[in-house]
């Protein structure tokens, strides 16, 4: 039974897609909580930011306020019901939990950074009154709505629509909008600012990278099972989608950066976004669109080796903590 066939397989044995199950297990080993992130040290940094830097931070946390909630909505409304493998749905269930942790992290971030209730309320309502954030949200909602009336993937057109939604959220939203946001965080960290935000972002970065790679592995599976879906028309649609996402994120960059900040400008962000878009196209097996190099040295440092070193230490602590048997005979 192909992965996108209508139905709801409930049997984990025999397991058709063990790779999805291993991704679920890896996500469990990556468990973290918001309470582990110390944002208190950021308050002194916020007090010494320039007005332009503070504007960037406020816009950034306003985007964070609703970004992961949008992803979670698409997960529940469109992805879970169409992926017909229980081991894949295990991962999607875990991803939904991780999105909830991200939402809690950003709630805590806003509560810490914006003690004024009116200012905080404006941040949570950013998609209504900040044009650059509203444009990104409308892009997301359009792709959520693209599957709104689709209950089963019966035809090739249905399955292409599903693939486009999946690729949009993996490559454009988690893989471009969020990566753009992470670049601002790591730019601040490179200047010794907001290390609490950066430490929490390390965990979110790890989660989002795993979400994106899971989605791409679903695409790989569908490509192997139904290669006829991956024609020139689909490739062209993906390129247009990424072009639109780059332009939406660039408008956000112009809002955040204004005339430019030390080591961060809208022009540099355009180059970075184009570089990331090409990375997403390469992972999907499509030719590059831009041929742009990464302009941010601080993002070159945020590479796989750094993350694996950090998380190997962190995850090992969790693994040690959950090994062996647990009894409740002892008094608390």
UniProtKB/TrEMBL annotation:
<dbReference type="GO" id="GO:0004748">
    <property type="term" value="F:ribonucleoside-diphosphate reductase activity, thioredoxin disulfide as acceptor"/>
</dbReference>
<keyword id="KW-0479">Metal-binding</keyword>
<protein>
    <recommendedName>
        <fullName>Ribonucleoside-diphosphate reductase subunit beta</fullName>
        <ecNumber>1.17.4.1</ecNumber>
    </recommendedName>
</protein>
<comment type="function">
    <text>Provides the precursors necessary for DNA synthesis. Catalyzes the biosynthesis of deoxyribonucleotides from the corresponding ribonucleotides.</text>
</comment>
<keyword id="KW-0408">Iron</keyword>
<dbReference type="InterPro" id="IPR009078">
    <property type="entry name" value="Ferritin-like_SF"/>
</dbReference>
<dbReference type="Pfam" id="PF00268">
    <property type="entry name" value="Ribonuc_red_sm"/>
</dbReference>
<keyword id="KW-0472">Membrane</keyword>
<keyword id="KW-0215">Deoxyribonucleotide synthesis</keyword>
<dbReference type="InterPro" id="IPR033909">
    <property type="entry name" value="RNR_small"/>
</dbReference>
<keyword id="KW-0560">Oxidoreductase</keyword>
<comment type="similarity">
    <text>Belongs to the ribonucleoside diphosphate reductase small chain family.</text>
</comment>
<keyword id="KW-0812">Transmembrane</keyword>
<dbReference type="InterPro" id="IPR000358">
    <property type="entry name" value="RNR_small_fam"/>
</dbReference>
<feature type="transmembrane region" description="Helical">
    <location>
        <begin position="162"/>
        <end position="187"/>
    </location>
</feature>
<keyword id="KW-1133">Transmembrane helix</keyword>
<dbReference type="InterPro" id="IPR012348">
    <property type="entry name" value="RNR-like"/>
</dbReference>
<comment type="subunit">
    <text>Tetramer of two alpha and two beta subunits.</text>
</comment>
